Amino acid sequence: MASSxxxxxxxxxxxxxxxxxxxxxxxxxxxxxxxxxxxxxFSGLKAASSSAAASVSRRRAPxxxxxxxxxxxxxTLEKTTxxxxxxxxxxxRFLAIDAVEKANSGHPGLPMGCAPMGHVLYDEVMxxxxxxxxxxxxxxxxxxxxxxxxxxxxxxxxxGYDAVKEEDLKSFRQWGSKTxxxxxxxxxxxxxxxxxxxxxxxxxAVGLALAESHLAARYNKPDSKIVDHYTYCILGxxxxxxxxxxxxxxxxGHWGLGKLIAFYDDNHISIDGDTEIAFTENVDTRFxxxxxxxxxxxxxxxxxxxxxxxxxxxxxxxxxxxLIKVTTTIGFGSPNKANSYSVHGAALGTKEVEATRExxxxxxxxxxxxxxxxxxxxxxxxxGAAYESEWNSKFAxxxxxxxEEAAExxxxxxxxxxxGWEKALPKYTPETPGDATRNLSQTNLNALAKVxxxxxxxxxxxxxxxxTLLKMFGDYQKKTPEERNxxxxxxxxxxxxxxxxxxxxxxxxxxxxxxxxxxxxYMRSAMRISALSEAGVIYVMTHDSIGLGExxxxxxxxxxxxxxxxxxxxLMLRPADGNETAGCYKVAVDNRKRPSVxxxxxxxxxxxxxxxxxxxxxGGYTISDNSSDNKPDVxxxxxxxxLEIAAKAADELRKEGKKVRVVSFVSxxxxxxxxxxxxxSVLPSAVTARVSIEAGTTFGxxxxxxxxxxxxxxxxxxxxxxxxxxxxxxxxxxEAVIAAAKEVC
Length: 745
Hints:
With about 750 residues, this protein is of the alpha/beta class. It contains 28 helices and 21 strands.
């Protein structure tokens, strides 16, 4: 009974995680067998011995830099005591070389340099089940330097993941392949997050590690460590240069994420050449200042034991994240291109591939995996199944002892939301006192926090202004990781990327983050990755227009609504009152594979007649209409704070005998999803007299109002003045709507 319940959980994870769209020297973990499944201790690795620790030196001063040059002689691969490890590492290298060569496109240098650390991680350290890439308690791996993705594809192939067969390697970077040019979680099971824009991946890894620490603090018991896994990440010099990585790593240090272990591929080469031309800081010292434990592996090319010892030491440090700086040679093994920018982002070329094969003693045809390597790696399939089976048995026991906690955790693991959760959303009438939608948002968040165990989030140092605090919970901090208010500080970019990591950790996590709408400019790359990677983050963006008033044009968004409407797979939502704010949260929670942006007002707005949660789900809907037979004289369309203006204008026009329909257009994307019949019922094609009003750019509105309609908006920057004065001066008024309506009908 117990095991069948647990297996159902595993099956649920698999069913909800379908991809959509659009010979080892020493093992660092025990190997269970299907014959004898003993519950693992999940205690991690023991501390390294003093001699091992001594062999892994910390860097206190910058290492001698290699001169800037186009090419360099490569060091000869030293023979290790275990020839199988060497053969396995070279298999990884040549799978990458061959795939890039066949595609005539890609980045072979990183996989050639990072193959040793990749081998140690996937073959000796990480716990995973290749036949169920979504097993909950797996270790997570993020390749932040996503351009080197053939490293990860080669490792997934060797480990037995069904998503990366030999034919997939051969179709690297080709149309419809599961091996795209950068790792994409929605294309390739086994890839946790989508990386490519440098620095995003390490920030995602911080989010994954935060998720693990939070769940462990909430659900582990003295007699049951049900949540226990590590997050590993490889990042490069480019990631280190991007500001997002420093933002995220600062938070990781502050939060003491002891189960986050990052490998810094210290190869001193970027696209333009040696990093000496632009990047000479002491990364070690910076990370120590950020609160990380720092280890330096001086020989990342052949120092397998150094890498192993570094991981042991990292796992022994439980109160802070660890950066393992691994000094490698980019393009290791290539006689004429190693240690140069020319191996970073282009195929080696036929002659250099042959020279590299000769240099590394690799007599095999392209894409060949030697039998002994294949046999060695094949053990991960039964081992992975055994790990999951052990955990399933453990969870079944946990479920018996702690049914309440198990139900909550299962909801987060599977993404199955509690039945009837939407009943917690507040409802409003026109008699309810008006309020700013940012305040109404807080009411919704606090209502949902009581019924959605996966809701967690916070603001970029604006919680008291964005109104995002969950009042019944404390702050997620190093000593209180079980709490659900996350303080991101003034770090918008990493905030978005960290939330992506949280969302992609488990389907039932519902992360939200907040700042002023205009400051989405700081986090747009992370928001775009949310949309691309199908991470259902809720972006709570307040101060959504000139309505914020005196702070002026630096803080007043103009083009932002249009820009997010132009972004694929993201919902841009702008509610007008209490019911619409609740509707936006209903939509945002329901859409777990499509992020949502809620644009919320600073100023108070009345609760309007005719608004509803159900209407919001349609994107656009009629809130009032005195016409019949779907033939109004004019249709007035508004969003957010301007819906009230449209409603007032309609009242005046009706006094003059006009038949007027008022439409709330909360979300263009949701409206576009509706049937042609529904859209015709709201915006009949025969009615060309249409007027829109929105306190933002008119860009895009002619798609809605048509060539004969009028779009009232703002196509210049705002101004510093009280909100009412700015609205009047910019013509965002009922009088302007009335005048436009009379022009078109």
